[in-house]
Every structure is written in structure tokens, then in C-alpha cells.
Amino acid sequence: MEGKSNELQDHLSELSELLVDFFNIFHAWEEEAISSLKTKLTILEVHTIEALGRRPALKMRKLAEIMEISTPSVTAVVDKLEKKGFARRQTTPTDRRVFLIELTKKGMELFEKHTDQHKNMADRVLACIPEDKVPVFVETLRNIVHKSSDTTSPS
After folding, report:
1. In the chain, pLDDT over 70 holds for what percent of residues?
2. Partner of 86 for a Cys bridge, out of 37, 68, 75, 107, CB 3.0 to 4.6 A?
């Protein structure tokens, strides 16, 4: 942070604290949403369903990459989701050794419910922002997401 003004230093300190607070709030909302699904799924299992709902028929390695977890970890989650009836492995017509992971009807129904919950969370966030500031907020968040996805995780 060398060479940064005192004002910027103050903003960085406040931003750091606000990010922690926002993460805790958002995590609580996510826990509340998952609990209301009444499925006894973990956050990781629901996020796996979410990833598969947004990008159907994924190879295990690609799913792991999207979720930013190891392939063995995502394989274990998919195994659990299969046993619970939310996901299935399908062979490809061109190579029967390759499996694509996709949601079952039950998994797709849960994905749609959780997507609605995310929209409700977005409504909660937008309720805190003056309407004329929403486009700037969305653009800023888009920039953070896009730039963060181009880099490795922060240290």
C-alpha cells in the first residue's frame, strides 16, 4: 500500500471491515435460504446444484474448475447428490468412458427454488441502495466479478 494517500488508506480500512460484515450477512442469508429448502443439503451440495443448473451436462473436471474445488472433492459431492436423487452421470454418445453430470428433475426443481431465493437476496441488497445508484453498483460488482475471475484468489 506504499504511495497511497491517507484518504485511500482510510477507505481501504473501512472497505476491509465492510467486506467482512457483508460476507457475514450474505452467508447468513444463504444459510437461511438453504435451510428453508428443507432438504438437509449442505451449502456445497446446493452450490453444486446451482453450478449444474446454470451450465448443464458438465464433465467432472469442468465442474470442479467452475466451483474452484478439487476434482476429488466435487466427485464426492456429486456422489452424494446422485444418492439423494438430485444429479446423475450420463455417458456421452461419442465416448462411453466420459461422463457428463446433469441434474435430475428433482435437482432442477431445487435449482429453480434456489434461483428464486437468490433473486430475493438481490432484492434485499437493492432495497439498501438508492435507485439512481443501482446501475453504478451493478457495474462495479460486474467489474469485481470479471476481474476476480481473471486472477487467482487474493492472498
Report:
1. 94
2. 107
